[in-house]
Structure formats: C-alpha cells, structure tokens
Amino acid sequence: MKFVCLTLLLVSGITDSRSEKYQLVGSADPVFAVAGEDVILPCSVKPSISVVDMRVEWFRSDQKDSQLVHLYEDHEDRNTDQIQSYRGRTKLNHQELQRGDASLKLSSVQVSDEGLYKCFIESKSWYDDTTVNVRVEAVGRPPVITVDGFDNSGGLHLQCESEGWYPEPDLEWLDSEGVSLNSENTETHGNTDRFSVKHTTTVHHSDKIHCRVKLRHHMLETLIISSSNMFISWRTPVIMISVFVVLSVIAGILISVFVH
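User: That's the sequence. What structure does it adopt?
Assistant: Structure tokens below.
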C-alpha cells in the first residue's frame, strides 16, 4: 500500500513539474486585423517542444458553447465541426508544430471575426491554454467634401462624408495650420459591421481645409481650398441685388412724386 501511494505521489509530482515547466504563450495585447486581409493568431509553447503528437484546438471562447474554429488531432486537421463562417479560412503550419508553434492563420478577415479566441494544447501528461483578443478594423472610403452654400454672414458651408468604417471612426476638420475647426452638425449611421459619418463646418476666409477620418491605426484625409474667388462669387450677386433694390426704391419714389 505504501508503494502504491509512493508511486502515485511520484507520478503526480512529474505531471505537476511538467505543467509548470511548459507554458502556452499567446499575446498580452489585442491582435489588430484589417477586414479583407490575413492575420496570425499567436500561440506557442515555451520553452519550445514539438506538439505534432498533441491535440491543438482553437475555438471562440466568447460565443455560446465555445464553437470550434480549428482542430488538429492525430497528425491531421479535423474540421468537420468547424463554425461554418470559418470554412476554408483557417490554417496551421504543420512544420511549425515541430517547434511548438501552433499559431493560427486566419484569411480574409471579417468584422464578425472580432472577439476572444482560445488556443488549447493537450498531450497525455500535460495541457495548457491561452487567450487571444482579436480586434478588427475596416477602412472606409476616402472622405468627400462638398460645398453646401453660404450663410447670411458670408460663411462658406462645407460638408464632409465617409462610409464603410468599423468600428465607428472619428471625423475632424483642420485648417492649414492643423488647428481643429468646430463641427456644427454631426451624423453617424451604422449597423453591426459598418459605419458612415457626416460632419459640417463653416469657414469665413480663404484657407486650406482638411477633412480627416481616422481609426486607431488608419486614417484617410481630403483637402479643399476655400479660395477668395468663392467668397467673391458669393458677394457679387448680393451686391448686384442690393443695387437693384436701391434703384427700384429710388425709381418708385420718383414715380410717386411725378404722379402727384
């Protein structure tokens, strides 16, 4: 009986020591991916050992029932139960498995791929897991600036619009010195995977005006030059109308005097 207990303690000690000796390493920071491109989800054993003979499983830990993303077992990929939206888009490098690297390549990233992924590796005497946080960014269309007329004080109304972004982007107006201009009217429209933004501003003098739309890692910008000709072209018809009104009033007075 003592021999059996001693044996169990030794086996338990070996297992515990192996569990402490090897560790799965993923990424402490979120992994950013661009919609439409490929991304690598890191997962490796430290110190490096071969995991060719082990079970390697990737699944979504933030979804119900921890749905399967990719499974490697008995020296081959077994993705019969894989989430339908991942079919044909996941790949393990079998040669890298010999060096303990079980990183997953995810192709043609979609906004719906954003979330938490768990890498789980198991052998007969050891297992461990690590979590990778995937953040997806979709770059929209370049912003379009349009002139939306003048106000009563002669200010030029400008409108900037851009669509197709994820997550919701920031839009800002800048002058030629890089100083932010006030956005007067702002609109944001979005659904589960795309956002569009529209901002307006008013300028009262000639300048180079920038409309900039940005996410954390991406930015698109459009420039418009509000030249003096724009303001002159607005003032000219106003002056002509004013002169016409004054002449009409004078003519009306003269006609009244003549009739009397």
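The chain is about 20% helix and 40% strand.
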